[in-house]
């Protein structure tokens, strides 16, 4: 393991512990600020995510957005590949995808212009530490090469880190939303 790999692994371990504590504390309306931001982008194609384990839950904001335009969820295509996004609607039939995240039973792919990005840790300059697969970094790089694409990190405030071990391939967030605040970078 390289030194950076070890530093990232330690940062992830600490962030997972903070995220679990925040998740266990149970926040009443964690997606209220997310809904507020998305209301300004009605009808713009967006992707959320189906929360797994201790991730903050964006579903109420996704449901509101789906009344105005296409909403999708990420579908992993394979290691080293960018994500694809399949159209999701409240109540649609789901199946288990890779890593246990639910995806729509029927694939109906489209390209979102806004991505609500799950994460392990974030910093106040738009840095994001993910799970280590590079899926969102590759996907954001691909989408941003075609058109402006807004990356909105969604996390518990407790997932903030002082500084993150970032690499040149790490795609920055444009905005970060927690249960407490909205940060724009």
Report on the structure:
By secondary structure, this protein is α/β, with parallel strands linked by helices. The protein has a single domain (3-184), classed as Rossmann fold (3-Layer(aba) Sandwich), CATH 3.40.50.10420. The protein has four helices and twelve strands; from the N terminus they run H-H-E-H-E-E-E-E-E-E-E-E-H-E-E-E. The strands form three sheets. The protein has an eight-stranded mixed beta sheet, with helices on both faces. The protein has a two-stranded antiparallel ribbon with strand order 4-5. A hairpin with a 4-residue loop joins strand 11 and strand 12. The protein is globular, with a radius of gyration of 15 Å. The termini are far apart. Its cofactor is Mg(2+). One of its GO terms (molecular function) is metal ion binding. Keywords: ATP-binding, Ligase, Magnesium, Metal-binding, Nucleotide-binding. Pfam families: 5-FTHF_cyc-lig (PF01812).
């Amino acid at each position: 393991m390289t030194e950076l790999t070890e530093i990232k692994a330690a940062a992830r371990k600490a962030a997972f512990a903070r995220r679990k504590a925040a998740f266990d504390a149970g926040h009443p309306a964690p997606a209220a600020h997310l809904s507020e931001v998305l209301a300004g982008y009605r009808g713009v194609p967006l992707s959320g995510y189906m929360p797994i384990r201790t991730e903050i839950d964006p579903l109420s904001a996704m449901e509101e957005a789906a009344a105005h335009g296409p909403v999708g969820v990420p579908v992993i295509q394979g290691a080293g590949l960018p994500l694809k996004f399949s159209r999701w609607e409240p109540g649609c039939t789901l199946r288990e995808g890779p890593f246990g995240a639910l995806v729509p039973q029927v694939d109906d792919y489209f390209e979102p212009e806004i991505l609500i990005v799950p994460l392990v840790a974030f910093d106040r300059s738009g840095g994001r530490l993910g799970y280590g697969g590079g899926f969102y970094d590759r996907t954001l790089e691909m989408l941003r090469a075609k058109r402006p694409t807004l990356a909105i990190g969604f996390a518990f405030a407790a997932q903030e880190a002082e500084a993150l071990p970032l690499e040149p391939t790490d795609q920055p967030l444009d905005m970060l939303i927690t249960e407490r605040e909205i940060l724009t970078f």
